[in-house]
Predict the 3D structure of the following.
Amino acid sequence: MMDGWRRVDSNVALPTGYEQGVWLGEFIQRQWDELDHPCSRQVTRRALDFVDNRLARFDLSGAVLIHGDAHPANVLHDLGGTAPTGFKMIDPEGIVSEPAHDLAIPLRGWTDELMAGHAPQLILQWCHQLAAATGVDPVPIWKWAFIERVSTGLLLSRLGDPRGCDFLDLAGLLAPLRP
């Protein structure tokens, strides 16, 4: 993933992490209202507070091109041996944002692993492992992961997918965390 992070010329017309954050905040609020509050207000409030935090700290000068949807299904083993890491990423969204945004995406979907026990400790451990491996602050990783978990849970609920409840229930367990 880090190999793909590159500075982007300001003339390139790509969505930014700021624009994505605005969209996510509006989506979370709208879906929570339209779905008649499928999770606690604490969960949505926390997600929206994190959106506000990331928007306030968005810095285009430090932003890089990120994949934007680097979940496990978009990471393939390179059987041809051409990728230096042995893996290739597919289906990029292409967003100019902070690296923490990219690192958070895989964390949003590991619901089964987190529901197996000790979710708050485990999610923070993963954020710190990613931080140690990349030099990226673990707190923004955690905040983006929470935002993405809530928005994905709401989307799945909107689509009638029962996994949406699991995403949102887990977000309820994680909302009190203060990393």
Q: What stands out?
A: The chain has a mean pLDDT of 87.
